[in-house]
Amino acid sequence: MVRVSASEIIGTEVLPPLIAQIKEDYPQLSIELVLSNRMQDLLNREADIAVRMTTPVQEQLIARRLGSIEIGLHASPSYLARHTAPENIDDLFTHTLVGFDKTTPFILQALKQYPQLSRERFTVRTDSDVAQLNLIRAGAGIGMCQVQLARLPVPLERLMPDFFAFHLDTWLVMHEDLRHSKACKTVFDILAAGLQAYISKAGL
User: Fold this and answer.
1) Which tens digits make up the pLDDT trace of 19-37?
2) Assign residue 33 a region: left if phi > 0, alpha if psi is -120 to 50, beta otherwise?
3) Which InterPro entries match (predicted)?
4) What is the pTM of this model?
């Protein structure tokens, strides 16, 4: 049994094909996928392996930096067919914006760079990253999503990249006591390779 922790978006949009690959190649392994935007405590074994969007600060962890995931403003073709794409910040604030409700550490970090994008600017709000992404895909408004996820299943159009480009360092971490666990090392290596391939798609 290997317990893997990831955010909602990574866990629903990126990891499933990697876990399918693991099960195909290593059917004897059992995988538990824990989806939470709360950082799981690996030292207390809430998870064996975790995908994190912040630099690990705990000791006793094996950590591998996988790259940087870029976040951009996006809208669906259906939304842009009804509304003219914004060209500046004033235009942007005339649109329906999809975003957060409660302030999280990620949101606080983003607000330091983009204080204009306060909670009140978003007239469609949810704290679920998956719901935000699907609202953007459904044409509910303009919102933030990972550049890689804007390509499928419905290609989204990126807006105002010169104004908004936010980067998340991405790490894969595991408790150092598990370094000799063949199961954990196997899962760690496959996830690392798959996530690095995903991150590299941003430049394609």
Assistant:
1) 999 999 999 999 999 997 6
2) beta
3) LysR-type_TF_proteobact-type, LysR_subst-bd
4) 0.86
